[in-house]
Amino acid sequence: MTEPPQTAEPTAPEPEATAPVPDGPAPQSPAAVRRRALLAGTAVSALLILAIVFGSRLLRDFDSALLPYAVATVFLAFGVAYRYTVWISAPGARRLFRQGWRSFFSAANFRKAPTALPKMIATYLGFQKFLGARSHARWAAHQLLFWGCVLAALITFPLTWGWFTFTSGTGDGPGYEMRIWGFKVLGFDSLNIFGWLMFHGLDIAAVLVIAGASYFLWRRMKDRGAITGQRFAYDLIPLIALIVISVTGLLLTFSSIFLHGGGYEFLAILHMVSVVFTLIYIPFGKFFHIVQRPAAVGMQLFKYTSRRKDGAAEELQACRRCHEPIDTPAYVENLRGTMQDLKLDFDEWAEYCPRCKRVLRGNAYLTHVKKGFSK
User: Fold this and answer.
1) pLDDT, tens digit, for every residue of 162-173?
2) Burial class (CB in 10 A: 0-12, 13-18, 19+), 164
3) Which positions ≥6 away from 145 have C-beta within 8 Å?
């Protein structure tokens, strides 16, 4: 019997003679990006100050004791706007940002998949199902941390800005009225379960945050993979800050209920310092991924809607080597455009599946690098 003929493995692809022109404006100079970022940060901060003034009815509902928190939120707004502007000025992020908003405002996309956007907001922003594929424990801890922070922000920020007020006709309860921008929203009795939840929402949020942050802190002390790549300022400081904020907040409640206010002033100052530090840290540390996550939703929407054409699944582009489907032609072309924006001269590799990329890289290594060592 004769053996079947052996087929030679293809080598790494050669660059194409002509490449399409990158979609998007030319890269800006760092000085121009900084000027735009400063302008954006200043504008957002000014708008927030105006919102605080008018939302608190010309500061009539503004609590001067919360001034440090309000000032910290203004710095937070400036930092988020500044860094976000710098981030989307990079070629890859700019294309991601543009494609996401293009899909969001596209009437054709809404006709193709009207439920896609709510579903992705729920799965990517709310329940973060992609984390469950890594670890169910990490997913559960992240959910505790996420919803605890969301609940705390929904309560703290409006109170800090003077948008929410709680007033009592008798001065000391038990009947209270919650007002938003001076308008009565509801009345409640502070002695029933609903009133207890209203006044202890931050305590509930603190318990959720402590549980989630403690798990991640424990994992970073025990897991070898986490220990190897972690950095103290980037990975541990955020967790420690969240725990300090939550613990001092619970101690304030404990002091007012069980200690008749003993040590309240010291705890209030410690709590305020930890909150202000964390708010200022958010735009320049690990917490910035909270601001970046919505852009990923836009990109997922673009991928999902590009796979559907007139209500039916669109044909996927095949790998140039093994002919297995990769993704839609629109998504592959967008990836090639991003690589061209980044001045990567091997954008044609976007038309290969991950497995074939590894094979081609291995063949290139054996041909050009290993061969040299054998001499």
Assistant:
1) 998 888 766 666
2) buried
3) 208, 209, 212, 213, 216, 242
